[in-house]
Amino acid sequence: MVVPRSVQGWMVLSILVLGMVAAACGPAGDTDKPATTGGPVLTPQVSVLPAQSEVIVGDRRFTFGLVASDGGLIEGAQVHARFYRPGAGARPELAGVAEAPFRQVVGHTPHRHEGGDIHLHDEVKGVYVTNELTFDRPGQWRVDLSVTESGQYVSKQASLAFAVRQSSQTLKVGEKVPASRNPTARDAKDLAEITTHVPPVPGLYQLTVAEAIQRGKPFVVAFATPGFCQSRMCGPVTDVVADVYQQYQGRLDFIHIEPYDLGVLRNEGRLELSAVTEEWRLPSEPWVFVVDATGRVAARFEGLVTVQELAAAIDLEL
After folding, report:
1. Computed from CA positions of residues 88, 89, 93, 95, in that sequence, does the dihedral angle turn out positive or negative?
2. Fewer CB within 10 Å: C terminus or N terminus of the chain?
C-alpha cells in the first residue's frame, strides 16, 4: 500500500511508540535513584506504553499505560512516579514525585447478535494520569515508576525516557483555532458517511468549527476515529465526548471530526489525513480540544481522556 506523505509522520510515531515500549522497562531496585543515564534497561517486569506523542514545557498532564510481560494491559494498579529532568551534569535531577491513579474509561462497543440485532457492550479501558508536576524545562526527561498490582505485596519497577519540547506541533492553549469547514449532517444523506461512531450521536455533527466560532460561546472539538483506531491507547474517546455531550448539551457546542478522509479510506483502502486534520497540525489521534468563547484553545487532551477530566475543563469555561 502506498502511504501518503501526510500519514507517514503518524506511522513513524507508531514505530517510535513501539520502540519506547520495548525499551521502557527499568531495573528493579532503589527508585530514589534514576536508572543509568544512557537509556532504559530491559527487564521482563513491566513496560510503559506512552499515551501521548508530545509533552511540552508548561504541561502538567502525563499519561501512560502499563503492559505486563505477557503483553496484557495492567489496569487498576497503584503507581508511584518519580520524575527526573535534565541536570547541570550528566546525572538527572529529581523534579518531583506524584501518584498516577488509573482513570477508567468506558466505551460502548457494538456487537451483532444472531438475528441481526445490534447491542452495545461496555468496554472498560483506562489510562494512568499524573497532573501534579509541571514540566518546566525542555530536554530529555525520565520517569521511574513503582507499580503495585491489586492483591500483590511486591512492587514492580519500570522507567521511561521521554522528551519535553519547548513548543507544540499542534495548537497550544491560548492559540486561536482555525475556522475549519468540517463535514456536518448537512453534507451527508446518512451520518455513517462522515463518522465511524456507532451509533452516531446527531448532535455532534450539526456545526462546522467556523460556525461554532461565530456563535461566540465555548465548544468542544474531538478528532477521533472509533472505526480505525491505530494504537492501543486511542480508546473510546468519542464515547467519552458523547457522554459529556449528554450532560452539557444546550450549554455549549460539540463537534466530532474523523481525522482520516473516510471516502478515500473506504473506497481506496488508504489512510489519508483529512484537510481539517492537517489544518489543526495534529501529530496523532485522538485529540480533544475545549475552545473558549473567543475561539481560542482553553484545554487540550491527547489520547484517552476521562469524562471527569473533560467535564472539569468545560466547567472552567461556563
Report:
1. positive
2. N
Contact predicate 301/288, CB 8 Å: yes
DSSP secondary structure of 127-151: EEEE-S----S-EEEEEEEEEE-TT
Measured distance CA(25)–CA(187) in Å, rounded: 48
Distance CA 134, CA 52 (A): 16
**Alpha carbon 149 to chain centroid, angstroms:** 23
Distances (CA, A) of 186 to 190, 220, 222, 223, 249: 9, 19, 19, 19, 20
Residue 98, C-alpha cell as written in the block = 506524584
Cα angle vertex 137, ends 133, 138, to 5°? 120
3-state secondary structure 72-98: CECCCCEEEEEEEECCCCCCCEEEEEE
When pLDDT is cut at 50, 70 and 90, the band that residue 14 belongs to is very low
Which CATH fold topology does 5-165 show? Immunoglobulin-like (2.60.40)
pLDDT in tens, 202-218: 999 999 999 999 999 99
Residue keyed to cell 503518524: 10
CATH superfamily ID and name for 185-315 = Glutaredoxin (3.40.30.10)
β-pairing, 219-223 vs 55-56, is unpaired
